[in-house]
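Supplementary Data S3. Sequence and structure tokens for construct A.
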Amino acid sequence: MAGTSPWQQAVTYGAVGGTKAPDLLSFPPAGFRPYERRSRIGHGVVRWEYASQAVMTWGVQRHSGIDVQLQDTPSEVIEGTYTPIVYDGTGSPIAPETAEGDEVVYGAEGQPLIAPGDTATLVLPIGPVRFRAPCRVIFVIDEPNRKGFAYGTLPGHPEMGEEAFIVDRTEDGSVWLTIRSFSRPSAWHWWAVYPILRLVQAAITRRYFRSLSDPLN
């Protein structure tokens, strides 16, 4: 709707939170193409701190050449967004490390940490053209050795669906990035260039993994 702020719009698909489903690749939402890739991006405390901070501050996108334009979202919208409870190995709930209420929590580089309900427009330059992709944060994972989030598409995005970015640290100190998604073109003109759209998706995904695995200064 013309003049409607992004935070006032609903996501453009029904299976909200579907990237959490363990059987996503076998049973994706009807009509959507599932995707998952998990790759080791480094090892050790420094790599973990860098990757976990980056994924929680839109750093994966920014370091991949995408302009992240955050939108002001009323606190009642953010507070009304479901935040899942996470548990440790004994089954006890883990308190999230982010603050409650209206307080904004910032990462080591001064960027605000992602929170459920955050709304953003991702602007991707491809040659002389800039593609705009509005999205909303659906859920956040904030555990001691596993951090990340998923966003869902809003009206105006070239695709419909959800994409999750999760970094985790295993017992041997290895740091991994997992990207899971399900998607399909959002309109007939995007269906018409679907093969090109998939090539662009693949190129962007490679950038995402490089953004966290490149050598650290």
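Construct B, processed identically:
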Amino acid sequence: MPGISTRHLVRRELAEQGYSLLRAQEIDIDDDLRESWLSLSIDFADLPPDEYLPGDGKYRFRRYGRFRFAPGSGELKPLPHVDYFQSADINRVTGGTIRKFAPMLEGTFGNAFLRELIRFDFDQFPLSLEERESVWEVQAHLIRVTASAEEQGYPTPEGIHRDGAEYVSVHLAERLNARGGDVSIYDNDKRLLASFRLEDVMDCYLFHDASLWHQASPISPIDKLHQATRSILTFDYHLRSDC
């Protein structure tokens, strides 16, 4: 039995509209994996700063790593760390720039919850049999955004953008003292399709990045005497023949 499951018709929604919003209470996680999640969540407190923010912003922190994923066997093999790149046509702020993000920690690569979540998300995608038997590269990103009374935090400083993957999943890992952070999904002509807010830990959305655009609004503190925090765990799924 899978360690993570849902009765929500995610695959149908992805096939019909290109995105699906899945709330935490709709996801069943076994007890052993919940322990692994608690271990993983500690990593968000020690993320290095993102050095590529416009205006020398100091509000975003991140690590990322890559896996070779063989869906047929479920094998997830860590890949060597490389610099991160998006083209300027999908990211108008940092696209075209080679970004040197800190690598994901060795223990994170081996975290049972993270590995099972990658498999769970993949299983929701409306793929052909050939695609399900192909090799994929999965990029995993741990991202924390903070805000204060003096500086808002921008989850997506690039605004409306694509990640450059086939499918993407975004899971809320932490939300403290924060207002805002509303997610908006757009069609290929950048017409708004939906807006929603991830409120509870493990609220998530999955979408076909190759045909949709997305962004998240800035966050600010509810109590201006304390910092606001919004952290996400996100996976980019790339169909590969060379990894």
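The helical segments are 10-17, 31-41, 106-109, 112-124, 129-132. The mean pLDDT is 95.
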